[in-house]
Amino acid sequence: MNDLATLGVFRDFVRRLRANVGWAVAQIWALGLILLAGLAWTRLPDKYAWQVLLSLLIPVLLIAALLVLEAGFLRRLLGTQEGRARFVTGALMLLAWALVVWLAWAILDWCNDQIPTWAGYLNSRAPAHARAKLFTYEHIQTWLTLLVWIWRWIVLPAKVIPHALALAEWGWRLPWRRLIRLMFNWRWWPAVIVSALLGVALPEYLFTGLPHGTVHHQVWAVIFKSGATYLLAIISWVLLLAWGAVLLARQTPLPEGDAITGLFKRLHLCRQWVGAQFGWVLAWIWAACVI
């Protein structure tokens, strides 16, 4: 029975990709154009007033184009769902969610900068024999670097993508029970891991190292590596979005008496305190970065 359910999920996955192949291809070329436009924006002069105004206007246009592209693709993947929000509402909610992701990314960057300090402290606290053999400074630094990588490329996308799909489709009226069930779906996390390995780890492994040979060869090597890295990342992104849309659309709400539902209700009733806890932690991290 479980094999039949998995086969049905894969059929739905292929069907949604085939129905939205135009949007999927647009993800490849349109995102590339947006990235190139962003790079060109950094080269704009600011000698005259119109150049300054253009420098301020272009980022707004690029963000708007990115929101339209992503919100449209996410909504197309999910199809028409009950309680669907307006397109503008879904796009604006994606912008708010992008700010949350940016904040989480900044925290991970801070953690990455603190790895040498943490590795040295943990190494100094280990027993003498373990400090020389197992808990060496290099080992601890490698483990912490891997931990931050897992949080950045596996845990964060696994949490962000389902919420982004739901925000684009339903706006602020999120189907929390569907999202909770998706988080506990065994088909979701392996897909995120495979996507991270193909889209991030594989390019880092294949395309590291300095190019060698003639200048012409080095230029083509850089172009090939950049293009292959971009294609691997975008294709992994598109496939993961489609897989997440399939799983989210097939989820049924948790029953009212479920323990997880009860936990969420309690958290919802105490949302002010939960928000205060997050605010305190963020303030502590900000103070640590500044001081």
The shape, in one word, is globular
Q: What is the share of helical residues?
A: over 70%
- Our estimate of the beta-strand percent is under 5%
- How many DSSP E strands? 0
Distance, first to last CA? 58 Å
- Taken in chain order, the helices and strands follow as HHHHHHHHHHH
**How many discrete domains?**
2
Main sheet record = none
Structural classification: mainly alpha
In DSSP terms, counting alpha (H) and pi (I) runs of 4 or more, how many helices?
11
Low-confidence segments: none
**Multimeric status of the protein:** single chain
Average pLDDT works out at 81
Radius of gyration: 22 Å
Topology:
Blueprint: H1 2-19, H2 21-41, H3 49-78, H4 87-125, H5 128-133, H6 137-170, H7 176-183, H8 188-206, H9 215-250, H10 259-269, H11 271-290
Helix pairs in contact: 1-9, 2-3, 2-9, 3-4, 3-6, 4-6, 6-8, 6-9, 8-9
Summarize this structure briefly.
The protein is an all-alpha fold. The protein has helices at 2-19, 21-41, 49-78, 87-125, 128-133, 137-170, 176-183, 188-206, 215-250, 259-269, 271-290. The protein contains eleven helices and no strands.
Structural account:
This protein is mostly helical. The chain has two domains: 2-253, no CATH class; 260-291. It contains eleven helices and no strands. It has helices spanning 2-19, 21-41, 49-78, 87-125, 128-133, 137-170, 176-183, 188-206, 215-250, 259-269, 271-290. Helix 6 (137-170) crosses helix 8 and helix 8 (188-206) packs antiparallel against helix 9. The chain is globular and about 60 Å long. The chain starts with a helix and ends with a helix. The relative contact order is 0.10.
